Amino acid sequence: MKKIIGLVVVGMVFLTQEARAADLYVPGDYTTIQAAINAAGSGERIIVSAGTYNEAIYINKNLTWLE
Q1: What pTM value is reported for the model?
Q2: Which residues have a Cβ under 8 Å from the Cβ of 33 and sit 6 or more positions away?
C-alpha cells in the first residue's frame, strides 16, 4: 500500500497599513495642550484653537513648530 503524503501550503498575506500622521486637535480631541503633546507620535500635528490655556507645558520629545 502506498502512503499518500499530503502537503498543505498556507499562504501568508502581509497586511500593511500606510503610515498616516494624524492631526490632534485641542480642545477638540484633547482638553489640554499637554495631553496632545503626550499623545503625539512621530509626524503628527497638534492643532491648537485660539484661546487662553492656563497650563504648564512639559515637552519630553522632539517637536517641530509651525507658525
Answers
A1: 0.66
A2: 26, 46, 48, 53, 55, 57
